[in-house]
Automatic annotation (TrEMBL):
Belongs to the KRR1 family. This is KRR1 small subunit processome component. Required for 40S ribosome biogenesis. Involved in nucleolar processing of pre-18S ribosomal RNA and ribosome assembly. Binds to RNA. Required for female germline development, cell viability during eye development and for survival of dividing cells and epithelial cells during early wing disk development. Monomer. Component of the ribosomal small subunit (SSU) processome. One of its GO terms (cellular component) is small-subunit processome. Residues 121-210 form the KRR1 small subunit processome component second KH domain. GO terms for molecular function: RNA binding. PANTHER family: HIV-1 REV BINDING PROTEIN 2, 3, KRR1 SMALL SUBUNIT PROCESSOME COMPONENT HOMOLOG. Gene3D superfamilies: K Homology domain, type 1 (3.30.1370.10). Keywords: Coiled coil, Developmental protein, Nucleus, Ribonucleoprotein, Ribosome biogenesis, RNA-binding, rRNA processing. Residues 38-118 form the KRR1 small subunit processome component first KH domain. One of its GO terms (biological process) is rRNA processing.
């Protein structure tokens, strides 16, 4: 008997578990219903109150198909879903909880009600704590959305999921396999990996899945590889000490004051000679400073150089002395015409 069960289990194995269709859970599968009542509640922000008030009759109608109750409390700002004695699906209350969570996070009712289907799930990714600086967080979140929402739309088309980026969270809604890809793309984007790399990888995988020859091979050689080119921006010092070439020998010992005096011969002078030498140096230095101060003082009394202006014009070139007869005649003719007129 055990061998037959094992054989049947082996026959039921499939290569791709994602291809298995989940059988529908019908009321005939659970005739007795649920014994205990389950209840889930979630709060919503003030700006969602108007929309939820308009849509709530549709929410009640949608949940009534699964024998669930829905309550909207505008005073506390909360939504509640409950099971009844007629509810036959024990997991539908979890699906209803996810639906009101998505509606509280600005997902429209038309999209959030899809969670009630068996093959559709949701994922709320928290991205607020992944980046420390607020400026970087805003830039990377905008990078995920893309120009005019183009990047987000491409992610939705490739994963068959509805993605909404708002505040510190990303709400995703769609098939379970697509939700895995969405989570990977969001986390990589917040870790400074551009989403275009993951989008390209998904496009390449989609094309490779169509080829039967490459179905059982490694696809890593076809996928784009991300190289981090960021260099650490550590503040460099203004003055850098250049390291000299390595030498196994120790540096030459510096000369002491006595060695310098011995080399110049000052060591052998007596006190009077040393005093006279210092006096002579002091007098020479003093005379030099006196001379500099005198020149500086006399500089204000020196008159500036004047240019020689002469009334008679001096021509540097002989060609300037020559009179242009044609030009002179034309001037005279013009002046005569002006007088006649």
């Amino acid at each position: 008997m055990a061998d037959e069960k094992q054989q049947n289990f082996v026959e039921d194995l499939v290569d791709n578990a994602w291809s298995i269709r989940i059988p529908a859970f019908k009321p005939e599968d659970n005739i007795q219903g649920l014994i205990e009542e389950s209840c889930f509640a979630t709060v919503f922000p003030k700006y969602r109150e108007k929309y939820l008030k308009e849509v709530w009759p549709l929410v009640r109608q949608c949940l009534a198909e699964y024998c669930l109750k829905a309550e909207l409390n505008l005073i506390e700002g909360s939504m509640t879903v409950k099971t009844t004695r007629k509810t036959w699906d024990p997991y539908i209350i979890i699906k209803a909880r996810d639906m009101i969570k998505l509606m509280a996070r600005s997902v429209p009712f038309e999209q959030s009600k899809r969670v009630l289907q068996d093959e559709i799930g949701c994922d709320i990714i928290k991205i607020g704590s992944l980046v420390r600086k607020k400026e970087k967080f805003i830039k990377r979140r905008q990078r995920l959305i893309g120009p005019n929402g183009a990047t987000l739309k491409s992610v939705e088309l490739l994963t068959d999921c509805y993605v909404l980026v708002q505040g510190n969270t990303v709400a995703a809604l769609g098939p379970y396999k697509g939700l895995q890809h969405v989570r990977d793309i969001v986390l990589d984007t917040m870790n400074n990996v551009h989403p275009i790399y993951n989008v390209k990888a998904l496009m390449i995988k989609r094309e490779l899945m169509k080829d039967t020859q490459l179905a059982h091979e490694d696809w890593s050689r076809f996928l784009p590889k991300f190289k981090n080119k960021n260099v650490s921006k550590r503040q460099q010092p203004k003055l850098k000490k250049c390291k000299n070439d390595y030498s196994p020998f120790p540096p030459q010992q510096l000369e002491s004051k006595i060695d310098k005096k011995l080399a110049s011969g000052e060591y052998f002078l007596n006190k009077e000679q040393e005093y006279q030498r210092k006096q002579h140096e002091r007098m020479a230095k003093q005379a030099e400073t006196v001379q500099k101060q005198k020149e500086k003082r006399q500089a204000g009394f020196i008159p500036p150089a004047e240019e020689n202006f002469s009334l008679v014009r001096t021509y540097a070139d002989t060609d300037e002395r020559k009179l242009n007869i044609k030009a002179f005649k034309s001037k005279v003719a013009k002046s005569i015409l002006n007088l006649n007129t």
